[in-house]
Design a protein that fits this description.
Structural class: mainly alpha
Distance between the termini: 23 Å
Low-confidence stretches: none
Largest sheet: 3 strands, antiparallel
Length: 361
């Protein structure tokens, strides 16, 4: 968990550095008039190459820190998951001799696959962030200039408005097949959590294969994702050959939003040997579980909104805009923090202050 948080924080800091570098390069535009606008634009276009080189160095520095941490996280989690799964199997099948984790071909193959998948995602994220940084720089210049020329506002006002929008949206780290843009925060969290899920799933299945385990149970908990409610707390057959229990493939298991394997899903599989194991979990009340899930999603939204407001303030600071704009940005942070306090008071949930922070740049 410590390594995963370090990876997330490195990328959140990188996002802040990239946004701030854009703000610093563009400046406040406070002295620009309509007569000098083209000259101002031309000077910024000439600076794009220097900005790109600087941002590339920032990204390479981040990658140099992240890549070994990701590999270490994968191996630490793999070792822990193998130990836990092996212990659970041996508790119900003490007479069975299995293959040691370090000698298992299945786990070695799983680790190779996990490394390749994780590094590919990180490389794709780095390339997207570099490309999108340049796009944001140019779009801020273009959009602010258009509003300045066509509207009754100063260039500084237009720049503040446009920069605030981009800092609110976040730095895109992925553009998916549908054309949707994933912010750095959203995507790096997805990459880390998806990697953790893949490690747990692949290593557990590798050990199941080492011991020829077929029947598995799915855990259950309150606040489960609504689409997982009908699958939790039940017994399944991994092979699908059981005549008594349904195949695991009949569930959403294996999908990116599926039971056990889904992002932010807290379900897990456990060994089930008929006649030996005791079924540990049973389905929860559906109505209560859905209500808890909705509360958790609302809290995550409020946390993201607070962080976005803090990024706005930081970017405007780097632009050295007028103090009045900074005061507005501070008020936005205060307002969103008040929304969180009201939500916590109403629901009795625990406030997670660390999730509201941005990493200082």
């Amino acid at each position: 968990m410590q390594l995963s948080q370090q990876i997330i924080e490195i990328y959140l800091k990188l996002e802040g550095l990239l946004l701030d570098s854009i703000g610093k390069a563009i400046g406040s535009g406070s002295n620009v008039t309509k007569d000098t606008l083209e000259k101002w634009q031309a000077s910024l276009y000439r600076e794009l190459s220097s900005l790109q080189n600087y941002q590339l160095r920032l990204i390479m520095q981040a990658a140099k820190k992240v890549n070994p941490k990701m590999r270490s996280m994968i191996r630490e989690m793999a070792t822990d998951q193998a130990r836990i799964t092996t212990k659970e199997i041996q508790q119900v099948l003490p007479e069975l001799e299995g293959i040691p984790f370090t000698d298992s071909t299945n786990t070695k193959q799983a680790l190779m696959t996990l490394d390749l998948e994780a590094m590919t995602r990180l490389e794709m994220m780095n390339a997207t962030m570099l490309k999108q940084s340049s796009s944001i720089y140019l779009e801020i210049i273009t959009q602010a200039s258009a509003e300045f020329v066509n509207g009754a506002i100063t260039l500084e006002e237009a720049l503040v408005k446009t920069a605030a929008k981009w800092s609110e949206n976040g730095m895109p780290a992925l553009i998916d097949r549908r054309g949707a843009k994933w912010s750095t925060e959203a995507y790096v969290n997805m990459v880390v959590k998806n990697t953790q899920k893949n490690v747990a799933d692949k290593i557990q299945n590798a050990r199941f294969d080492d011991y020829d385990v077929d029947l598995v149970g799915v855990s259950s908990h309150a606040g489960s994702r609504p689409t997982h409610l009908d699958y939790q707390g039940r017994i399944y057959s991994r092979s699908g050959k059981s005549k008594k229990y349904p195949p695991l493939s009949s569930t959403s298991y294996g999908k990116i939003d599926g039971i056990v394997t889904g992002i932010n899903c807290n379900h897990r599989l456990y060994v089930y040997i008929e006649g030996v194991s005791v079924q540990r979990y049973h389905p929860y009340n559906k109505k209560e579980s859905i209500a808890k899930y909705k509360e958790s999603q609302r809290q995550r939204l409020l946390e993201r909104n607070i962080r976005k407001a803090k990024h706005q303030f930081s970017m405007l600071q780097s632009m050295e805009v007028d103090e009045n704009y900074l005061k507005d940005a501070r008020r936005r942070i205060t307002y969103r923090q008040a929304q969180m306090r009201q939500f916590i008071n109403q629901t009795g949930r625990t406030r997670r202050y660390n999730r509201e922070q941005i990493v200082e740049t």
